[in-house]
User: Fold this.
Amino acid sequence: MITPALPLSRERTEPSARADESRDESITAWALAARGGDSVAVDRFVRALHRDVIRYVAHLCADPQAVDDLAQDTFLRALGSLHRFEGRSSARVWLLAIARRAVADSLRYAAVRPRRADLPDWEPAVELAQPRGLPGFDDGVALLELLAGLPDERREAFVLTQLLGLPYAEAAELSGCPIGTVRSRVARARASLLALLAEAEEPARAGSRALAAA
Assistant:
């Protein structure tokens, strides 16, 4: 049985916001140290943001097979550009902006030279991108699958704020739109997801009613 519940649409609560801020400060510090040639900082920077990048590009691109390659491309671009990173924004926002450009470049390339998909290889990428422990989803319904049905801009806003935990202001900076637009996109995404969840649950409810009436 699926309970139609989603992560609360909200700015981060005060303890959560402090934790996110502390994490972002650490990651930014590692990025700045990595810029100076600290190999340990490079490793910590990559490890800290690898899953965020995987999730983000998985929800942006249309080809699950490309997720790992896009994540690798993102980090290669980032490490090659670290000398230009000055810490004016958080390293996480800076890296996700690079990931966004990597996906856009990949989509442009694919439009010119479409690539065949080998279907057996898509599961690992989806598994890596699938969020864990969110209320309202059992094995029968994947959030990733539901998100795929949303318009691109709403899906991106939801992923950034509700799954990756970015503050709305940083999501707005990354998406290049006003913060109010991000809030609106998240609200619309949540409404669509709740409707999809209710639709997915209806066959199970109908079956239960039929059993009860038998």
About this structure: The radius of gyration is 19 Å. The CA atoms of residues 28 and 90 lie 6 Å apart. Confidence is low (pLDDT under 50) at residues 1-5, 114-141.
